[in-house]
Amino acid sequence: MKAFLNKRIVQPILLLLKQGLTPEKLALTITMGIALGTIPVLGATSIACAAAAAAFGLNQAAIQGVNYFAYPLQLTLLIPFLKLGAFLFGDTSFHLGLSDITNLIQTGIFITIKTLWTATWHGLIAWGLVAFPTAALVYFLLRPVLKLAAAKQNSI
Asked: Considering Cα of 134, then 97, then 105, then 126, what sign does the dihedral take?
């Protein structure tokens, strides 16, 4: 596991720092990739990450890589965000689990969209309430770590 994490996460991050990406931009790239990678709308994260990278001048490949690694987190948080959204809006009709949503997707995308439209908007609001403060915290914790890593890379 340690070798996997080193090869797939640590080494690419160090390579980006060697290539001149600033620790601040890299911290923002990683943070935005994770935050946008957990949007409770399946299929929307790649577009959201691409738009954020373009808007903030972030590394497109890096943000998509982080988005890819955030996919299990997105699936893990999908139902909690939808349920939190239902709770926030007082929607007592949302009782679906991940297997129910998977079965719904197999019946057809348009039926799925129609069925989950309200739950998805509620989930997006819940995601926003959680993601923005969490992303700020991750960014401010990650930035000094990456600055230290960059300084270490420059001294080698």
From this structure: negative
